[in-house]
Amino acid sequence: MSRNWTPKQQDAINARGNSIIVSAAAGSGKTSVLVERVLRLLTDTDNPVPANRIIVVTYTDAAANEMRQRLIEGMSKLIEKEPNNDILHEQSMLLTNAHISTIHSFCLELMRDNFQELDLEAGFRICDEVELEVMKKQAIDEVFEEYYELHTGEMAELVQFFGPTRDYKLEKTVLQIHKFLNSIPFPDEWLDSQLKKFSDAANSNLSEWSDIIYDEAEYLLSTAHDASIEMLHIAKLMQAMKSPRDFAPPTFNIRHSPISRHEILALIEELIKKDVDIEKTLTMIEDDITVVEGLIAFVEKKDWEGAFKYTYKFETFRKKELEGLGEALHAMREEVKKNTKAAEKLFLCPKEEVKSDMGKLYPILKQLVNLTMSFSDKLTEIKAEKGVVDFSDFMHFAVKLLTCEEDGKRTKSALAKELSDYYEYIIIDEFQDVNDIQDEIFRLLSRDEKNIFIVGDVKQSVYRFNQANPDILIKKKNRAIDYPSYDKDTDWVKIFLSNNFRSRVEVTDTVNYFFKKLMSKQAGEIDYDENEHLIPSAQFQDADDRNTEISIIKTGDKVVDVDEAGEPINEITDLEIEAKHVAERIRRMIDSGYEIEDRGVMRPCRYSDISILMRSPNSRAPVFIEALLERGIPAATPLQKGYFDSREIMVVLNLLKIVDNPLRDIEMVSVMMSPMFMFTAEEMAEIRLKSSNARMYFSVQKASEEGNTKCGEFLQILSELREYSASHSIERFIRKIYDTTDFLALIGVHDGGEQKQANLRLLVEYANKYESNGAGGLSGFIRYVDDVIEQKSDFEQANVISPNDNAVSILSIHKSKGLEYPICIVSCCGVKFNLQDTYDQLLLHINHGFGVKIREHKLLKLYPTLQYNANSHIMKTEQISEEMRLLYVALTRAKEKLIITFTEKNLKMKLLALKRKVDYFGAIPPKAILSCRSFSDWILLCMLGHKDGIELRKIAAHHDAIVYRDGADINLTIIDADTVLSDELSEPEFAHSADDGIVRRIASNIEYSYPNSVLCGLPSKLTVTEIVREETNSDVLLSRPTFMASQGMTGAQRGEALHKFMQFANYDKASISALDEIARLSNERFISREEANVIDSAKVEAFFDSELAKRILSSENVLREYKFMSRIRAAEYAKDIDEEFADTEITIQGIADCIFEEEGELILLDYKTDYVKTEDELVKKYGRQLELYSKAIGDILEMNVKESIIYSFSLGREIILNNS
pTM score, two decimals? Predict the structure, then answer.
């Protein structure tokens, strides 16, 4: 069925003849357009393009796979309509091997096809990020050691400049430059061009940096000037109203001020009482204005020397104090002083000193560049030795293959020309996220940029931290003309896809309102004009409660519990408060049956319809998950970091360490007290006292020698593991740990057990990957992990989230890109932007090069240079612009309902500060937007002028605000933290004198008898031995069965030998000859010779002749020695427990000898070698055990256990227990 394309989509599908930019807004159906365009190219009746002569580049492997699948499906549908069309069949075959991939995959294929040109081994492999970090550490250590030895003076100078005493800051700087250069196609040339600016400082043109400074200074000074004029107007009004007889209506207007008319009148009354000299104050304000206007004049003329000389006046200016204007106007005065001081700092010194600084910096930068290039060479050498490459190598190797030098000029290589001639179209998705080296590769592959089709949206460019450069797309858009116009002077045309097919109009109206006010070329790097404006085009049924919600939680006045000294105790954080509020909002939506539309039908929402988006969820998501779980809401998040911090991984790593070296005390204690061995604090203290001055290992040994069986068992396991580790791979060794300790099963019954188990399994994979790289040995693996942790790197956690899970997802905004959810909650909007990178001593910018702070050793101070100030300003602007685009991505994920939440400690002060950023006409200047430091600042700023922002305007006394009546309907709610925490109560105060009633109650409490004393003895974990001991009221003593009577082995050992036979035997072979199977297992070391000798083959043969054995042999699903761990209700263990505690959970751990499936149900079988005379003895002793086993196994395997059977080798028959 043909699709109804919009006219703009039709243009994007059919346009030919130029390179084309499709600016595709969120939810505009760009993937469908891309697929249709490719299909049209492949099936063009006049000039079909072979599928293998088109390059399609996507941002992720998942997107590439989706694109390929959709193309194959589309082609299949066309073939169904025209089954005899040979071209369609040929294109369908070519599609399976078409170049539809990420740019990394394309470059990798290029490298593999031409490895001999790159001095690479044919079998090179790709290293992961963790392995790369370790190689970087090795490279930098070796290079630094070499430089200390061969270039002592230069190295000492660099360390002192960046240190000043240790070289870790220099190391960080080298790695910073290396990462930056990875995104540049020709890094050597870039470095040379930037160093040249410093080497010839005397002739350097400073305008590329000074123009940036002038721009910043103009904003700071104009803001200070506006505030001073406002203060002057208010002061004149006060002057006029102080003398009523001389009062005349003022002829000026007061700007939207943080001081309301009511506050001004109150100030006037105060002035009259104090008899303040208004005339003197007015004169001082006018002098301030004159000073500010003087510097503005120099800035407007771009007179650096004049501005620098003029700034001396600001020192006197800031020392003046204005009296009599009250606290509010004093705050305005402080704002003026702050902005003028910031402007003054921009003009640090005369231009000659600027150039002198550049000359002094040149040798430092030259040495730094040489050190960085030595590091890069060493890293390349190490990677070559290991036969590995990393992802950044892909790009640089591709550029090397695609370029060459002819007559001293760089040009396309023969390979590049061949590929350009071969590929007729280059189609690139998510172009806003490319970097400079990727753009160069596309240019080299193209036919002089005349056959490129790119799709991108600058508003969704959020990977600058990964060296993405949205300026590449911006420049291409600026030089492109609107389709279908054509200009012979340009090869680019642009088409805008603005129709949004994802979201309800309530969502798109919210997005349009916010970003029309916020986003511009200056703030956001793109104008949010009619081309970027979302056009709501999705079809939804009418439904209630779709308005966007904004919840502002005031936390400044929350009530907290305090101790006797008045110090807060159990104080809840703002994050926890917000998480509780979000959890309650979700709970209400689920409980009320809030409906969403699913394929045209309204249905109640599910947990999986809801997503919580936030910045940096690694530290915040666990808090939200806890709050959600408290409200009975399942939640999941794909945590990327924190692998080594997870408890289960720390336990296993510490066990590896004490296996490698048992004399590690901290690791020893950690393992013993972990869920793996469950030693208590009291037990550990008792063990330590055995030998308090010795290593913990020796204390444990001594405790074992003195009869501590738990320590003995621990040492036995440790000894077995140490022996095993010496002769097996790390992968098998870790599996052995899991098998020996049942740690996988044990950890699975804890909260988040699925995630913990997945992490533990992933450790096996990481160990295998480590060994597959040619490394080996337990000690080496431990050092490898320690190096990773030292580098502050981490392994990625296992992802246990499935699309089919019915759980609320918590995602970072970056991870949500490309996804959509019926209900989106954008939380933690009050978190401050992280601008830390813009304060480093060295700032690098692709266009402006090096910006460095100079270290003044005598004063122990760093001071910025012109280049540093310029780079800092422009990088802050770019980073804050990216934060704005990140907010756009977050808000456009919602299909039907958008909810925004954040906390504010002092909402009034925040609003008073924000309303000053609004100009006379209700607009928000770009510089004011860039001065905001959180999403919530932007949201509040926009809502101050929104029709539904009445409550905010009341709080801010923003009575004269210009209110926009159009736009989205938004439900804004201001909530007190105590409302969220309504169940949090303060501690009561006690009287100083004794109270008879209280005394009587205390006495009563002392005599109190706990009614549920059974809980005191309730175990947290049950093993088979403990269950049997409970049932028999004695320790388990196994008599020696007559069929195993023999000298030298105990009854328990003989019983274990028979169990091992039943575990490892081939039942088909054993049913033919038990003796032969016993011999085979002995020869293959499954059982020892001694064990083989004590097994009574006649009793074994009797078992295999039984009907029970035949049932087992006929089953298609048999599990032997099945280890399990589960939880049961306390009421199932202790029948007499109080109902209040019946749901308390107990962990049950055990091993089922045999489980087999029969007609879709399970049979549980337990082998017993006890010597007994009657069946009742076994039923009484083991019936309770099998009852609990049956329930646990049924829960775990999600199947009904229809029978539990004991097979007694002593009696030679089966005993069927009633499972009802």
Answer: 0.76
